[in-house]
């Protein structure tokens, strides 16, 4: 039972990343009809927002500490972060320690601006072009963004540790009388993903802006005839989708150290998630994300990889084939989407 629950938790952890990225992909496709292969790059940029803030907070200046000497008896030079000099040693150290969660405050405006610039500067010119053209141009954009990150930050993964208070493990099985230690940050990531997913659905369901967007997704021409600038709202939704991907990347950094190709690593899998869930279906994207995450977790166990070598590498694609053979529109796909 312990092993079973552990694999479920691992699946929910990985499924959270899949669901968040797939949610953003589906928002863009559902509103604008664009197949955005640059979405994985947005996930990567979000992770490097955390790297950037961490480096900024660790900027320091040198002072001479007369109370400490080296082996020659000379006073030691000590590096003091500017944050500690401005806010005091304790508060400054706490701010540095919580760099990753604080990166959310940086990532939201940065990702919104990047998303809006991407949509207005490039993608709007490909709305009426074939999906193949959209894939080529957005995939090319993803490669450009990836190489920029590689040039600026280097090719090696960069550690972005979580706050010290969230570094340990928690016995999540104690509630039901089981001994099941699990990393606290992975639990935090799942809860964070759940909050973001709930917030997106609540925004679309209960706000006037969201209701208009849903109406525009169903019948864009009719909404436009009512005098509503639906194009502007869809542009804002593109920015929001970019922000969702960026936030997913920010919080995933402590789990998988950011590197320049992490966006590509998640991109293909996330598109498989979208297809399995159903093109244009937000609930389908979330459901498929968690489902495939759990299946991949169980396929990675020693028993599974010993019984069927390599099953952990292909399980998602096998599930996609089975789902599409039995339900060509995906689990919750809508009629007419990508069927022209």
Automatic annotation (TrEMBL):
Location(s) in or outside the cell:
Cell membrane
Q: Which InterPro entries match?
A: ABC_transp_permease, BCAA_transport_permease
Q: Name one GO cellular component term.
A: plasma membrane
Q: Which Pfam families match?
A: BPD_transp_2 (PF02653)
GO terms in the biological process aspect are: amino acid transport
Q: Which residues cross the membrane?
A: 15-35, 42-61, 95-114, 189-213, 233-254, 266-295, 307-325
Database matches in CDD domains:
TM_PBP1_LivH_like
Q: Which UniProt keywords apply?
A: Amino-acid transport, Cell membrane, Membrane, Transmembrane, Transmembrane helix, Transport
Q: Name one GO molecular function term.
A: transmembrane transporter activity
Q: How does it sit in the membrane?
A: Multi-pass membrane protein
Record family assignment:
Belongs to the binding-protein-dependent transport system permease family. LivHM subfamily.
User: By what name is this protein known?
Assistant: ABC transporter permease
């Amino acid at each position: 039972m312990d092993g079973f629950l552990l694999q479920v938790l691992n699946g929910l952890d990985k499924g959270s990343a899949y669901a968040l990225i797939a949610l953003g992909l589906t928002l863009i496709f559902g509103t604008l009809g664009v197949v955005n292969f640059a979405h994985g790059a947005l996930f990567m940029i979000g992770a490097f927002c955390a790297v950037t803030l961490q480096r900024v907070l660790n900027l320091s200046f040198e002072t001479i500490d007369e109370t400490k000497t080296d082996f020659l008896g000379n006073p030691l030079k000590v590096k003091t972060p500017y944050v500690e000099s401005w806010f005091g040693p304790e508060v400054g150290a706490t701010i540095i320690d919580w760099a990753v969660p604080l990166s959310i405050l940086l990532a939201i405006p940065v990702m919104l601006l990047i998303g809006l610039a991407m949509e207005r500067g490039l993608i709007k010119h490909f709305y009426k072009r074939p999906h193949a053209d959209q894939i080529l141009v957005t995939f090319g954009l993803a490669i450009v963004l990836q190489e920029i990150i590689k040039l600026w930050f280097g090719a090696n993964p960069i550690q972005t540790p979580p706050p010290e208070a969230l570094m340990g493990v928690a016995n999540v099985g104690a509630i039901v009388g089981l001994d099941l230690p699990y990393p606290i940050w992975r639990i935090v990531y799942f809860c964070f993903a759940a909050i973001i997913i709930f917030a997106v659905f609540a925004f679309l369901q209960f706000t006037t802006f969201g209701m208009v967007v849903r109406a525009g997704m169903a019948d864009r021409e009719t909404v436009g005839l009512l005098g509503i600038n639906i194009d502007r709202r869809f542009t804002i939704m593109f920015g929001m989708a970019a922000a969702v991907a960026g936030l997913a990347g920010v919080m995933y950094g402590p789990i998988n150290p950011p590197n320049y190709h992490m966006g590509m690593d998640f991109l293909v899998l996330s598109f498989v998630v979208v297809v399995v869930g159903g093109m244009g279906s937000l609930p389908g994207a979330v459901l498929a994300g968690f489902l495939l995450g759990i299946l991949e977790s169980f396929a990675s166990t020693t028993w599974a990889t010993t019984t069927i070598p390599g099953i952990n590498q292909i399980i998602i694609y096998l599930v996609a084939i089975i789902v599409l053979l039995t339900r060509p529109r995906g689990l919750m796909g809508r009629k007419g989407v990508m069927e022209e």
